[in-house]
Design goal:
heterodimer; A: mainly beta; 50% strand; B: 116 residues; mainly beta; 12 strands; globular
């Protein structure tokens, strides 16, 4: 089954404690992205990757890092989480081919930073 | 300026009736794509329907149709014969042709509650 998986699905942590949210897709997609969702703001892109070792900032990259060492994985790293990073996070992937505009979203990770 | 505007924060609809969710967009690109996603209370984002800027016909997917009015820059979602399971948040999104990283820009969403 084609899917994007994220772990953990729920996480409560404290300010300053480094954490990583994993994302993996099994569709051999080139494009992967991270979004955060906050009430009234919809989803906003944090970082994206166009292929292995190619990453760049989205609209709200501050406080986040990413890496793309393998095509299937795109982890999101919070080196020193703060309460304003409490949010619902989505990983997404898409094939780079024409006519395949659909982005596939993971199930989401609900993060609370105390 | 907002790129995607959804003016209806929430709405009620009677079961079996049709409902239209508004979405207007702003772009100077000639090539772009418009999407609708459904987010039930469980939180996942479910892709519903896609309209390309060069598509001449309105997109349809089962009970979902997209009323695309290019000159007005609107891409309203129509859900026919509403079901209780349609209760959810609905997001309109756009991918601009020149958007780096295949970014989707989302509206603020519309919450739909279907009444029995």
């Amino acid at each position: 089954e084609a899917q994007v998986t994220q772990n953990p699905r729920y996480l409560i942590t404290v300010t300053g404690k480094k954490l990583t949210v994993t994302c993996s897709q099994n569709m051999n997609h080139e494009y992967m992205s991270w979004y955060r969702q906050d009430p009234g703001l919809g989803l906003r892109q944090i970082y994206y990757s166009m292929n292995v070792e190619v990453t760049d900032k989205g609209d709200v990259p501050e406080g986040y890092k990413v890496s793309r060492k393998e095509k299937r994985n795109f982890p999101l790293i919070l080196e020193s989480p703060s309460p304003n990073q409490t949010s619902l996070y989505f990983c997404a992937s898409r094939d780079s081919g024409r006519g395949t505009d659909t982005q596939y979203f993971g199930p989401g990770t609900r993060l609370t930073v105390l | 300026a907002q790129k995607i505007t959804q003016t209806q924060p929430g709405m009620f609809v009677q079961e079996k009736e049709a409902v239209t969710l508004d979405c207007t967009y702003d772009t100077s690109d000639q090539s772009y794509g418009l999407f609708w996603y459904k987010q039930p209370s469980s939180g996942e984002m479910i892709f519903l329907i896609y309209q390309g800027s060069y598509d001449e016909q309105n997109a349809t997917e089962g009970r979902y149709s997209l009323n695309f009015q290019k000159a007005r820059k609107s891409a309203n979602l129509v859900i026919s014969a509403s079901q209780l399971g349609d209760s959810a948040m609905y997001f309109c999104a756009m991918r601009e042709g020149r958007a780096a990283g295949n970014k989707l820009t989302f509206g603020g969403g519309t919450r739909v509650l279907v009444k029995p």
